[in-house]
Amino acid sequence: MPPYEKHLIHYTEHYRCSNFTYKPFVLSFLAHPDSVYIFTKVGMEPWGRIGIGVLELIASILLFLPKKIWLGSGLAAGLMAGAVMMHLTMIGIEVKGDGGKLFYTAIITLILSLIILWSKKKDIPFLNL
Questions:
Q1: pLDDT tens, 22-33?
Q2: What is the rounded end-to-end Cα distance, in angstroms, of the chain?
Q3: 31 in helix, strand or coil?
Q4: For the segment 91-101, what is each residue's pLDDT rounded down to a tens digit?
Q5: Which helix (H) or strand (E) holds 118?
Q6: Cα–Cα distances in angstroms (integers) from residue 93 to residues 23, 84, 89, 97, in the given order
Q7: What are the DSSP E strand ranges found in the chain?
């Protein structure tokens, strides 16, 4: 595979992952009714919604900083793992008739984050690889 194709695939993953973490951030700060409903249901409204929204924004930004991609993907993976667990234990897979769209988006973002994190494992300073 030519180097330019490898870079294109690499940055496509970053864009998708960043996009999936940025959209919920916007909905959180605009107090979208679905976002308010979810965080009310888990007992984290409004501070949990705002705090997690800030963390999602930070993860989205870090995914585009070459030396901090590993940190952004790790943060995104942690946030999405939490989202998946909340769906499985407290919220349910389907939220307000969405057919599981939020749940499946969280799973896709978690997988993309882990792929990026794995590909950047040599950049993690405390692993000494």
A1: 566 566 777 878
A2: 25
A3: coil
A4: 999 988 889 98
A5: helix 101-119
A6: 19, 9, 9, 10
A7: none
